[in-house]
Amino acid sequence: MRDFKKWQFRITLILTAAILMSCGGNSRSWKGNSKSAKDSLKVSAIDSMIVAVEEAKDYERKFALADSLEKTGDISPVKANYWRGTALRSMKKKAASEAYFKKALEVEELQEKDVLYYSRSARILSQMLSVKNDYEATLRVATPAVQKLAGLPKAQSGDLAVLYYVIGSAQMYLGHVEDASESYEKSFEQYMKSISKKDTNGSRIRSAITGINNITVACLNTQHYKEGKKWNDRTDSLLYVYRLRPDADSEVCDHYRARIRLFNALTAYEFGHRAEADASFAAFQKTDYAATEQGKLDANDYLMKAHRFEEAAKNFRTLDHWVDVRGMKMNLDNISMYLIPKYRANIGAGRKDSAIYVANQIVNAYDSALVWSKRDDTAEMATIYETHQKEEELARSQWELEKRGHDIARQRMISFGIGILLLTGFLGFYTLNKRKAFKLLQDAYDQLEEATSARERIESELRIARDIQMSMIPASNLESEGLDLFASMTPAKEVGGDLYDYFLEKDHLYIAIGDVSGKGVPASLFMAQVIRLFRAMAKQHYTPADICTRINNELTENNENGMFITMFIGLIDLNSGRLDFCNAGHNPPVLGGDADGGNFLKMVPNAPIGLWQGLEFEGEYIDSIKGKPLFIYTDGLNEAENPDLVRFGDDHMLDVLRHTEFANAMQVVESLKRQVEEHRQGADPNDDLTMMCLKVG
Questions:
Q1: Domain 477-696 top-level CATH class
Q2: Rg of the chain over CA atoms, in angstroms?
Q3: In angstroms, rounded to a whole number, what is the distance separating the alpha carbons of residues 96 and 387?
Q4: In terms of CB atoms within 10 Å, which end of the chain has fewer, N or C?
């Protein structure tokens, strides 16, 4: 098999060389504007050759090809330096790769053919610098890059989104919060621009989910929890849209659903909402991701914050195996990120022997980390020399290495001192806690009465809000000649984000059902705004598609929280039975009366309302639904979960409807409601539940 791959690689190079020779011309300059067939063929052949080298993982040859092709004028310096940088990065020569990415960005006048490689070089380099926590250098690279790329037709939205994200994160870590918020918004705009284009396999929206989730992480790491909550909600909204895709990856959905729930727990705890925090963390633990080693380590962010040290210490048992599997070195950053929290968890859990063991791990790892740091610096300096980097960069690296050599003895003494301090801290921990215990207990009693009073006040206010919300939706049943309609809405919390509405004028009936992203008070306020807009436009006799378009234009204006709503809007002529409708990212209704006893409607996949400005929603119609029950619902029905997280499911719902003999609309809705309650087996509702059933004629 290896021989076959070698021959395949050699054949590719030979064919490519032949193409290059046949395409050769007098001009080898990249300053011209020629776009002849020969030039296009040559570029394609060069790119194919690079792909073949990468597939063979022959990164040294890739580096050599970049040198050769630049000398012959077949590729530009920007493209050559990008290839050199990626080749060295694949060979783990980070310092040298950074130097070549910087060279790729030194171009004064950016040509159209170089935009892609320029933006990729800027994106990769800024990410590498950000990972090293070198935020000033990150800004020096990324800021001029976005300025140069802004407005260029060939600039990639995905690259710009990442660049604005790393700029925002650098600003956030440096304390420039307002500037960071502005950069994050620009990143979000680029992600939205990217996913508004054709997304064949969902890769664009997955990248957007990852990027916005990373913004949340940066906000939480810098303790800007309010900002982090906003971006976590936006991640949740995008994940909801992704989950509606038929090709959605269930593992990706579970992974980010888990992270969203974990981040909700962290922010709720920080805001003092301890019950909500525990509930969100319990929801996180029910995901598949939470059971993985990575999930257990992530869970410790919350467990340590909540002082649940026993559980955190138990999770940290997987750390050694997790590190070994990944071949991870315990460098200084990893000691701080993993071993120090592991030590604190064991101290908090009262595990004296385990704490001493981890303290020894820290001391040994710290000493080794200093040696590795020296070796890495030496290797990187040699690479820079071998690849003819700038003399000042080499001199600076040498000076830093010499300085570290002089300091190594002192640093080893510090590592020994850390071990002594950790052990001393352990003994002091128990002494201090004994003194604090009584005071903490007294404070708890003092706060209990105040907390009880506050809880009762909040519960009273939420009951009032629920009453106001329920008063906004019409009666459950609508009695009219030739029409049988019944609807039901059950919020998962005191107030919810689902809605249903109808408007009857003479022989025309408007109906609507919707599901706002998120739950609770923000969702209920958004829902109230949608009902107001729907009623106003129905009274003006707009078509369902026009109503969706106009509501979308209203909601996307100043929608800073990124909220959206899925909706099904219909207009029924009670005389003819004609149904005009528009489905805006909502679950497909079920229409009965066919040979199967009912099937999902096949509809145009419009986007949810509120995500993007300027969308034109597409409407559809059915000639007549007379005598055919129409059942509309929100995902609180088909996604209702039992204690084992098994969902009610589309197939089960359809089976129930097919085997429910239609007596009246109310009977159908109540039957489904009972089925859902039985399926939950006592578990709390995980989402609002709204259903509507109607029959004309």
A1: alpha beta
A2: 31
A3: 7
A4: N
